[in-house]
Amino acid sequence: MNNKLARAWKLLPKTLRKTIVLLIGSTLILTGLLLIILPGPFTLPLLILGLVVLALEFAWAEAMLARVRHHGAKINPKKFFKK
Length: 83
Description:
This protein has five helices and no strands. The protein is an all-alpha fold. Helix 2 (14-37) runs antiparallel to helix 3 and helix 3 runs antiparallel to helix 4.
């Protein structure tokens, strides 16, 4: 099933793929940014998911996602939840 989906995705014209990825990724990022201001959960996961979607077709998003992963690996969650 996954292989069929990947083949179907690659059959789409490149401009259509980029447009779809840009719309979905930017929508996720904008929603995540709005949730910083408005009350709501899941701010950071939406931002990261938007970058993951954009990284499917854009090299700049892939580089930014690599930087986010690098900095995210440095975070020690035990520091935040100490009693």
